[in-house]
Amino acid sequence: MTRETATKAGLHPRNRHHAPYDLAALCLRTPELTPFVFTNDHGTRTLDFADPAAVKALNKALLALHYGIRHWDLPAGYLCPPIPGRVDYLHHVADLISEGEEAPRTGKGVRVLDIGVGANCIYPLLGCREYGWRFVGADIDPVSVKAANLLALSNGLGKQIECRLQTDARRVFHGIIGPRDRFTLTLCNPPFHSSLAEASEGTRRKLRNLGKAESDSKPPVLNFGGQKAELWCDGGEAAFLASLIRESRDFAGQCLWFSSLVSKKENLAAARLAISQAGAKRQQVIEMNLGNKQSRILAWSFQSDNSWSD
Question: Can you give the CATH number for the domain in which 296 is found?
């Protein structure tokens, strides 16, 4: 069965970030944000979203104020994710795995695998706080795995979050999912770009949109941080999705739902065809409207319904 699901414009109804940021409350909770807040020419209190240090301080404040994450930091140069968009993914997939139930599924009975967890560990941290789920995070970068495990431990979530190192960069699920592992859901935010040059140009475009144009001769700060595995891979998003779908067949009986963000709409048709050819019984496309950015979640299952026992 194939089904299309579209959301209304804007964030998921359960997302905590519909209103503008309460900068006074955020600064009170995390004083290190205060130096980055200023009043613009329109008399509005704001901060410079092109400044990586400001964005990092904002993230720390949002996580502390809204999710009780007291300790959050990143190694220098690693990806600093936007909190509202990341938690939106979780709310949508919570609906997906809870279809037909009165409320979203919560608690440690829901076990989630995050492919490409990153040093920020953002999906596991948010998923534990919002829904009480258990997580396994996977990454090919040992620095990211070490940092993510440290974040889990420092926030008292060491028993709910376990991060594993993927030692074979050509693999996605193989080497991570063991024979006894079972997951209600897998998540993935695949590398968007196919090369460093493409990633750099994408960041220059973002900076221009923020009124912060840089000289073409000056290397930009990539996506406000980010290592190779976080931002680009050979073949880009399309190639990564193809690998993700291909390997999912080998673990069809161990995962209820597989899912991934698909940032480039032109990659969707090929991915959906690959899912059908892999023999999945269900697939959904969930459209997401994150401010000026359009994205979507592609999800598929080899199970006929959600009564599958995890």
Answer: 3.40.50.150
